Structures are given as C-alpha cells and as structure tokens.
Amino acid sequence: MSNSASAASGRGTQANTSPLVWLMLLLICAAAVCYIFWDGLVEMEWRWANIEEYSHGYMIPFVAFFLFYQKLPALIRLNWRGRWLGPLLMAGAMLGWFLGDLSSIYIIVHYAFLLALVALGISVFGVRGFRLTWASFAYLIFMIPLPTFLYRGLSEQLQLISTQIGVAVIQLFDISVYVTGNVIDLGVYQLQVVEACSGLRYLFPLMSFGFLIAYVYNGPNWHKWTIFLSTVVITVLMNSFRIGVIGITVEYWGIEMAEGFLHDFEGWFVFMACLGVLFLLILALNYAGGRRVSPLDLIDLSYPSLADIKAARPGFRRTMPGLVLTMLVLAMALPASIAISDREEYVPVRESFIRFPLLHGDWVGEETALSPGVLKALDYPDYIQANYRRPGDPIPVNFYVAYYESQRTGSSIHSPRSCIPGGGWKISNLTQQDMGDALGYSGLRVNRLLISQGDESNLVYYWFAQRGRVITNEYLAKWYLFMDGLTMQRSDGALVRLVTPVLPGTDVALADERLQAFLREFYPILPEFLPGQDIQVKEISRSRQNKTS
C-alpha cells in the first residue's frame, strides 16, 4: 500500500505543473528567440530567394520537423530532465547574436540562432532527449548560407577539379581542347568556366538530401557515410560529364547542338540526374553487401500516428527549472535587442571611380569593363579596371580596384589568391613587400606575386584597403571587418590590385620598377576614392529593421 501511495504521490508531483503552463513558457521562449533573431532570419530568407545555391533553404525547416516528429513518441517516453546546459548555451547564443548584430555580420547571427534552438531543446527535454533528436537540429545547418569567402574558395576549387576532369574526358576522344583563364577553348567554340560549372550550384541541395537519405537509411554506418560523402563526388562528376558531352557534341554535331544540350542539361535537370545516380549507388551498396530487399525498405520514412503520441505524457516538473532559467536569459537579452534595434551603419562620402583619372602624370589609361556575369559574381561593386601605359614603355599596368560601401550582408572582396588559380595561373612566388623605401609612403605594404601560365608570366601587387588600414592578410581583413563593425559601425572596404607582364628573357626587376612608378603617381590620389578612418557620412544605413515601430 505504501508503494502505491508513493507512486500516486509521484504522479501528483508530476501533475502539479499544468501542461498548459509549460506550453505557454515554451511558446514565450520560442517567440522571444524569433523576435531577437528576426533580422538575421529575414536576411537568411533573402539569400534563399535570391541565391540559387541556397534556394533549397525553404524546405529545410519542414524536413527537420519531420525528422523530429519521427522521434516524438520515443522522446515523450523519456523521463524529461531539462539541464542547466540549456540556459548556458542560450547565454552563448545571445552573446553570438549580440556580437553578430553589432558588427552586422549575419553569418554569426545565423549560427547563433541555431545554437539558440539547440539550447531551447536541451532546456526542455535534456541531453538524452537531444541525443535522440540530434538529426533534426543538425539538418538545420543546411539552411544556413556559408560565409561568402569560404563558399568562393570551395566553389573555385571544385570548378578547377570539375573542369580538369571534363577536359580529360574530351581529350580521350582525341578532341583538341585548351583551358585558358576562365575559358574552355574548343577551337570553334568557347565556353566560360563559370557557365560550364553551373551544375556545381546544386552541391548544397544534394548534400542536404544525401544527409537526409543517409539518416533514414536502413544499413550499416559505413553505408550511411558513403551515401552522404558521395554527394560531393557525384556533383563534381556530373558537372564534368556535362563539360565532356559539350566538347564531344561540338566536335561531331556542331555548335547549335552543343548549345541546346548546355541549355537543357542545367538547373533542376542536373539535380534530378544527381539524385538518380545517388539512388543507383544505394542499390549498388546493398547488392554488393548481399542484401536483397525492396528499394522502399532501404529507407525509413515512417511517422507516428496521433495515437502513438497520445500514449505517453512527459514529466513537466522536471523540465521546468531549465526552461524558466532559459526564459530569464532571453528576458535579459530582449532589452538589448530593443536598444540596438535602431543601430546604424555609416556609409562614408567618397568619389566614384567614374571620376578616376585616365590621364595622370605621364600615364595614359584605357578603361575596360567587366562582363555582366563577373559583375554579378562580385556583387556589383563600384570599380575601375584600366590598362595604363607611359611614353617609351608599351608594356601596360592593369589597375583594378573594387570598392564595397557595405560588406555586412555577404558582399565581400574576392582575394586574388583564390581567383588567380581559378583563372588557370600558377603562383610561383608569394612575398610581402614594404613599399615605404621605394615610394616614400609609410604604411604601404603589398602582397607581391609572380604568376605564370604556359610561357606567360605576370607580376602582381595587391592589398586590402579597409577603413584606413592597409592589410595584406585575408583573414586579418575579416577580423577587422568584424571589429570595425562593432567599434566604427562601418564595413566598407576595397581590393587594390596591379598586374604587369614579365616578358620572356627580361628581369622581373623591370616589372617591379614599372608597378612602383605607377604607384608613385597614383597612390596619393587613392584616398579620394577609398575612405580612411576620418570620414564624412554620406548615408546612414539601418543594420536592423526597426522592430518597435
């Protein structure tokens, strides 16, 4: 009898906290998280809508919910124990949001939002519950766009690999093909590498699908890892196949047929073809392992009924302390969210590059335009690109500057160290050189690159002009972008690059002298076009939408 009374007392203790009260606290916490992270979520959705590589982002939350729903009966049957780890993680998420929001670097806000969801989950059903539902949280990673500099570096490397394999396929058929810079030259037909490699934009959707299939797959773990990791290989090989078929089609059936294939074999058609290969791989893995089961039995897409969910009740009281403390952390963050809701980003006054002189000293420049595709890839900066020559020296200096008045929403500078290999050039020498002695301008330090492609060689100088700083390290530039967003409320910046040929049989010192002579004339006028630390404000841009209005 005493045991029965004790059990009844235990049930009464569990029932002291009304499920309605518990649910209201959970909804309040969820609403507070959405409110605090709202601007970051809006920016993320903008990327889904405007960047094809991330257009799958709309589906990710629904799939993540399905994965969570699959585990709901097992989760309910657990003895829920909200942990103190949840409020601690929520405090970390709020710190990430605060720093990301103040610096206007939304990628920090995006990952802080994901951490906040994890924190809320652990606050509610504890670490054991999180372990059971980890896949639904991990799947949300695929909705977050990669940092721009990381995506560009990855994309350029995959383009190189894909192009090399595709060209090798074409050469197997004894067809002449040559890759020069960003162009695949088939003699009678030239194909831009960016266009040829457009199939790579479906890498992230395919990886997200591969993760989903690997998780619900009924098989050994090494099969699961093979399925997921193969998505990268499949995407690259499918794009290489696309390049190879274009080359063969040009050779045997003409340009019109090749352009028709290029138009038809793109977009979601490439994605569906990749999915077909992925499912063939799954069947092959099972056949090689001696399993003879229906393809439908290989994956578990079952979901619980409402009767299964109603069969158990969670212990609300045990989860209350962690949830209440998490709500207190959010309550402390809300005033900060309101206080910085009107935080502004300063856009400095500067001269447009339309007014940059083509005649200066002894130098005469001829401006050249970037193609629409390149401008789109660069996120449409204000730029100048011109070839300058001086009397008695026919060798040009290619002068290029790209200026961004804001880098907060993902628009950022392309590093030549990433772009040069993507253009087919090899970096044979890379040093940093202080130009103070040569030019008499203190504080100017440049990256000096000697690059080559076949018999051609070029000398390159470049640096990052960042709010009054001259920076040569790409990652240091990212650090100052973060810090200056916090302290200066600015994210403007530019890349300055000079290139000149090194003729065969000539000393590279002649090329150095040419670039230094150019800098001696033009460096003093750059501050008119590249704002320093002391600025006049042209425009005040809201870094957050005013949520209190």
Distance between the termini: 62 Å
Mean of residue pLDDT?
82
Topology, number of strands: 14
Helix % is: 40-55%
**Main sheet makeup:** 9 strands, antiparallel
| Helical/strand content category | alpha+beta
EC number: 3.4.22.-
Membrane topology: Multi-pass membrane protein
Protein name: VPLPA-CTERM-specific exosortase XrtD
Transmembrane segments: 20-38, 58-76, 83-99, 105-125, 132-151, 199-218, 225-248, 268-288, 320-340
Please give a handful of descriptors for the protein shown.
single chain, 549 residues, alpha+beta, nine-stranded antiparallel β-sheet, three-stranded antiparallel β-sheet, 16% strand, flat, hydrolase, ExosortD_VPLPA
SSE arrangement:
Blueprint: H1 2-15, H2 19-36, H3 38-50, H4 60-70, H5 72-77, H6 85-103, H7 106-139, H8 148-172, E1 178-180, E2 183-185, E3 190-192, H9 193-196, H10 203-216, H11 221-253, H12 255-264, H13 268-288, H14 306-310, H15 316-339, E4 344-348, E5 359-360, E6 363-367, H16 372-377, E7 382-390, E8 393-404, H17 416-422, E9 426-434, H18 436-439, E10 445-453, E11 456-466, E12 469-471, H19 474-487, E13 493-501, H20 508-522, E14 537-542
Antiparallel strand pairs: 1-2, 2-3, 4-14, 5-6, 6-7, 7-8, 8-13, 9-10, 10-11, 11-12, 11-13
